[in-house]
Design goal:
Elements lengths: L6 H17 L5 H7 L6 H13 L3 E2 L8 E2 L1 H17 L20 H16 L3 E5 L7 E8 L4 E8 L4 E7 L6 H15 L4 H6 L1 H7 L4 H18 L3 E5 L13 H11 L2 H8 L6 E5 L11 E10 L2 E11 L4 H21 L6
Helix pairs in contact: 1-3, 2-3, 4-12, 5-12
Length: 348
């Protein structure tokens, strides 16, 4: 708790924040005394609210109106919720099913996208996400397998969890002994190599592969395409239409501004790249970009081999449901990072 706040002031502030989150309306001392079991008279509450205003935690738009929380109040509220979460290992019953949708996710992109959709559905806020790709990821498995008489599939699995499979058709049957030689060469030249090394070894593969020109060309093209795909940045936006549910976005120019901002891939990357913390929350003008200064952004980062590989973030009005949103991100983040650390986030 802030050193300037007594427990009584803090309880009154919490009640004021709760009312504003639920109603988007200011509240006065009489209504607060009636609706919340604080245990103080309206006169006492009025004096405490006046002090909270002097301290910068409450604001009053009109002399005759009640008060609403300031950005400073929401910042204190965020820190209060985080402190409770970090001190408690108990899982909220409303989030107990959080692990089930992610038990058998095939690829990191699908993991991040599914997680973003899930968070957007339970919070009803827009969610942006990014999966960082690196040319340092290494090829942990490569194999050419027959799937029918004239069709084969090239499987590649990287240590990032990216699993790719591409079908190659042939006009002639590849004999088993030839298939063994192809797989031996693929493993010898590419296994354990990073994307750049794999790409550099393509020329050697072309010179040493003496069997089927169609296969040689197809395999070379597949690996070239994978390098382009895997070294790019994956960005997604889920639940953008949710902003229309909140009175803060009744102003059409404000809606247009934030939609245009969140549809710009470069701007999303800029938002999500600003922190590598496990959980990072910026309230109001702590967000530097103009369209976001009246919003709160809750970001969670995901790590693989100590490298930040992805970020998911809720973008919401400052008057958001902080308890639900922070707890959802906190629990989900721990779950996903646990899956990644154990290597369970893709099928083997």
């Amino acid at each position: 708790m802030n050193e300037h706040l007594t427990q009584r002031k803090f309880n009154i502030l919490l009640a004021t924040i709760d009312n504003y989150i639920k109603t988007a309306q200011p509240i006065g001392s009489r209504v607060l005394s009636k609706n919340y079991n604080i245990g103080f008279s309206p006169a006492t509450i009025r004096n405490e609210m006046s002090d909270l205003g002097d301290l910068g935690y409450l604001v009053q738009s009109h002399i005759s109106s009640g008060r609403i929380p300031s950005q400073k109040a929401f910042r204190l509220y965020v820190d209060y919720i985080l402190d409770k979460l970090y001190k408690s290992d108990e899982s909220s019953s409303s989030l107990m099913s959080i692990r089930k949708p992610y038990e058998r996710i095939v690829e990191p992109e699908k993991l991040i996208k599914s997680s973003s959709q899930f968070i957007s559905e339970i919070t009803q806020y827009p969610v942006i996400s990014m999966l960082k790709k690196s040319d340092k990821m290494r090829l942990s498995h490569i194999e050419l397998l027959p799937i029918s008489e004239y069709n084969y599939v090239l499987l590649t699995l990287y240590d990032s969890g990216d699993l790719n499979h591409t079908v190659i058709s042939s006009e002639q049957i590849i004999e088993q002994n030839e298939l063994i030689k192809i797989n031996f060469l693929l493993k010898k030249l590419f296994l354990g190599k990073n994307l750049n090394e794999v790409y550099d070894n393509l020329e050697e593969f072309s010179s040493k592969y003496k069997y089927n020109d169609l296969f040689k060309g197809a395999i070379t093209e597949i690996i070239e395409n994978e390098k382009d795909k895997l070294s790019s940045m994956y960005v997604s936006v889920e639940g953008l239409s949710n902003i229309f549910k909140y009175s803060e976005y009744n102003d059409l120019s404000k809606v247009q501004s934030i939609i245009e901002y969140l549809e710009d891939k470069d701007k999303i990357v800029s938002i999500l790249n600003s922190s590598d913390n496990f959980l990072d929350i910026k309230v109001g003008d702590e967000n530097n970009e103009q369209p976001l200064v009246e919003n709160t952004i809750i970001k969670s980062s995901y790590f693989f081999n100590k490298n930040n590989i992805g970020v998911i973030a809720i973008v919401a009005p400052m008057r958001m449901n902080y308890e639900l949103s922070i707890e959802a991100m906190f629990k989900l983040s721990r779950r996903i990072n646990g899956l990644i650390i154990r290597g369970d986030y893709y099928e083997r």
